[in-house]
Amino acid sequence: MKSIRRFLVILMVAIVTLANFAAALRGYLASMDEAERLFNQRLLQQVDLLNYALPKSAAVAGKPLEFPARTSNAESSLEFQWLDNNGALLARSAAMPDSVLVPLQEGFRYFNFNNYRWHLLVMPSSDKQSWYILAERDDQRYRLAESMILQAVFPMIIALPLLALIMWWVTGIGLRPVAHLASELRQREATDLRPLAQQDMPEELTQLTQSANELLRRLEASFAREKRFSGDAAHELRTPLAALKIHCENLLQELQPVPESVIKLQLGIERMSYLVEQILLLNRTAPDHFMGQFAPVNLTRLAKHCVVDYSALLAQKNHQIEFDGDDCWVLGDAAALASLLNNLLGNAIKYTPPNGMIAVNTWLRGRDVVLEVMDNGPGIPVEQQARVFDRFYRLGGDRHNSQTPGCGLGLSIVQQVVELHGAQIALTSSRFEQGLLVMVTFAALAAPRPAINSPSELNKLDPSDAGESDEKNN
Length: 474
Hints:
3 domains, 10 helices, Heat Shock Protein 90, 5-stranded mixed beta sheet, 48% helix, kinase activity, Beta-Lactamase, 6-stranded mixed beta sheet, alpha+beta, 13 strands
């Protein structure tokens, strides 16, 4: 059942049609009985007319009278025979045979002649000296009766489509509160967990509204707990990790030569710090939790600043980077978009071998803005491209074939930012000889004002929010 409205209309029309059919059938049978009674009564009246109309001298005329056939196209032919008490024919209509049709016994009966079935009435005359046999074709009787009955049934049949339209309109009015409730829920933001209004709510929707409000209350409490957890985790995890870093740096300065175990300890602490920051960033950019206010963002300038932030790392690995494209504006959150750019560019830098090539482009394609980040690194096999967005999933397990450490959350964060902005992301082969091309398609913004043009205008973003430090890139 895909549509309650359609189901109700079809059900009601079916019920009305069935009820009308039953009523019409019963009315038809009753009407046929009544028509039969009226036709029989007409035959009795014809007997009275014959008593007055036939000449009294017909019995002594020596031969029976024969009345000529009617020239009018009568819908119901009425024929007769006039006989004496001995069964001798005194008079007849043109369509009646010369012989007596049935025994002279008073009453109604059926008889076949002239290729038709006839309804007969046998009655004595008023003076009891003769008999009348009146005959009427049975098919014409039923045709006249049915024509009168169907004239009463046809309006009911014709009214069914009109009745279906009225039912469709009425059910639409009746289901309007459901459509209003659905519209209210559809127009709400993901973070709007206010209870639904119950004023003037129909009884049938009260229980549904109460259940929805209870669910919204539980969701609000759950999001509040997660938000508190994020804040507590940021404080409880960052503080001891910062202390561990300091102590590890002290060990590196005090111990000469530096033991390999201390170096591994430092790498483990850095990886743990990176993992904590990525998990917190992943939680903050979740569409259901995100509380940022969208504003016009110059994506081209934001991408340029991101490239500048990575200039030291690019020089360290001797990467050649190209930047090209149009001046593109999108409606979004600058901090989240900075996280997306930092993760994509950070991945390209980390997984591209030294002396490699990287390209960052922003193109305006009609009503779309296309962001491209391309490298000539090892790339991602086609069969693995759908899974790299899963949390904690990395090609080759915990350590990539390139021996580059990571936690498998960078592209998960990118996908959440893409979903947050209603954009689309696609992975394909690089236009270099090898490598990966990541394309993110946004809806273009026609009126880019007010604008956010540089990281200094990103609401003084925390580096952990924008993902701007090198150690926080996957």
